Amino acid sequence: GDEFYALVKRIKDDMADVRAIVVTGAGSAFSAGGDLQFLRDRCADTPSRNAAIMRKFYARFLSVRELPVPVVAAVNGHAIGAGLAFALACDYRVVSEKALLGVTFTQLGLHPGMGSSHFLPRLIG
């Protein structure tokens, strides 16, 4: 979260030579999803504290939308849950034929978060 937000800010502050940004995963997956302990901690917290924490989390995650150049998610492997949500938030997605995509939030008893319920219908109708 914080590292990603700082990187986006640094890119925004020095856009002179940047024409596009490509984001991909390290290794064989794009992203296996979010931090399950973070989600468990949200269940044990107060509603007002959760609201503040989640607003900060979403602001950091969605900061990718503030970049003034196209952001391409090069989905080189599985993109599950939060990983797919991040790819959906990018401007474009290029997906490997071997990649498995999944909005798996409901399997954890959660709504499709991180913008999934906003971005996915706009992409697939």
Order of helices and strands: HEEHHEEHEEH
Low-confidence regions: none
Instruction: Figure out the total of helices.
Output: 5
Largest sheet: 3 strands, parallel
Lateral strand order in the biggest sheet: 1-3-5
Helix fraction by DSSP (H/I, runs of at least 4) = 40-55%
Shape: globular
Overall structural class, as computed from helix and strand content, comes to alpha/beta
Blueprint (SSEs and pairs):
Layout: H1 2-13, E1 21-24, E2 29-31, H2 36-43, H3 47-61, E3 71-75, E4 78-80, H4 82-89, E5 92-95, E6 101-102, H5 116-124
Parallel strand pairs: 1-3, 2-4, 3-5, 4-6
Helix pairs in contact: 4-5
Q: How would you describe this protein?
A:
The chain has a three-stranded parallel beta sheet, with helices on one face. A three-stranded parallel beta sheet has the order 2-4-6. It is globular and about 45 Å long. It has helices spanning 2-13, 36-43, 47-61, 82-89, 116-124, and strands at 21-24, 29-31, 71-75, 78-80, 92-95, 101-102. Helix 4 (82-89) crosses helix 5 (116-124). The protein is of the alpha/beta class. Helix content is 42%, strand content 17%. It is built from five helices and six strands.
